[in-house]
Design a protein that fits this description.
7-stranded mixed β-sheet, about 0% helix, about 50% strand
Length: about 120
């Protein structure tokens, strides 16, 4: 089964940027959709962004408009999350997810998950 490995998390000051990567261990099928979620302590897992692997179509929630950008590199079987103008409220473990058949905003439709990468934003 395909595995997802996130990287790029870390500690950053408010207003800074980070770029997360999620590398798949094998080819991602065109029918699949990939996404990023985050989970802060004591909170539910929250949708951040999704991308349709075949076309690059993207979807975002209303809470992060214009600050986060999801992208993909089909040749590298990798998706990215560019995060700009970070705030302490963005502090969370960020998870890469895959295997959904549509641009789902809930965790349930995603069948494959990475181990997560910690993002900490200091004030």
């Amino acid at each position: 089964q395909i595995q997802l490995v996130e990287s790029g998390g870390g500690l950053v000051q408010a207003g800074g940027s980070l770029r997360l990567s999620c590398a798949a261990s094998s080819r991602i099928y065109s029918s699949h959709n990939m996404g990023w979620f985050r989970q802060a302590p004591g909170k539910e897992r929250e949708f951040v962004a999704a991308i349709r692997w075949s076309t690059g179509q993207t979807r975002y929630p209303g809470s992060v408009p214009g600050r986060f950008t999801i992208s993909r590199d089909r040749a590298k079987n990798t998706i990215y999350l560019q995060m700009n103008n970070l705030t302490p409220e963005d502090t969370a473990v960020y998870y890469c997810a895959g295997g959904s058949t549509d641009l789902a905003t809930a965790p349930g439709p995603y069948r494959i998950w990475g181990q997560g990468t910690q993002v900490t934003v200091s004030a």
